[in-house]
């Protein structure tokens, strides 16, 4: 059976979404979404109800860690990938890495190690290739990761598992190659 890697990301703005401090986040949003859709190993992503782009994979939901501001918005993504390395290569290089570097400007930060974070910023898990997770499933996986640490049902790149549930390691050579291809593709975005 073929599998895809599901990735759910979640952040909490320091200030309401429309606050001017978040303007640079919003300015980078469209180019990041364009970059992910041309990324090596990308399969699909959920859209958001009422927004242009792909259809939403169910009703949007937030984890229990969500701190609501007046605008009831917190950035989150839900996507599918061909393997463990592809979303890592996208997230930590190129256009998205530039946005990550500014994360402290926009988002509340989970408690730094050695303390347990207040919430994990992302979760990974495997799904059958013919399935698409919905937002509620993604939230449940993030909360499971927080409550139980990494298991084959919910994990991170620090403690990855393969699609059979066995501990895995990331192929660094494959990630370097994917990163290079992504940067070449992103150059065309301007």
Structural description of this entry:
It is a single chain. The protein has helices spanning 23-37, 85-91, 94-100, 103-106, 135-148, 172-187, and strands spanning 3-10, 42-45, 76-81, 122-128. The protein is of the alpha+beta class. A four-stranded antiparallel β-sheet has the order 2-3-1-4, with helices on one face. α2 (85-91) packs across α6 (172-187). The radius of gyration is 16 Å and the shape is globular.
Radius of gyration: 16 Å
SS elements, strand count: 4
Give me the side-by-side strand order of the main sheet: 2-3-1-4
Query: What is the CATH C level class, in words?
Result: Alpha Beta
Number of domains: 1
User: Overall pLDDT, averaged?
Assistant: 92
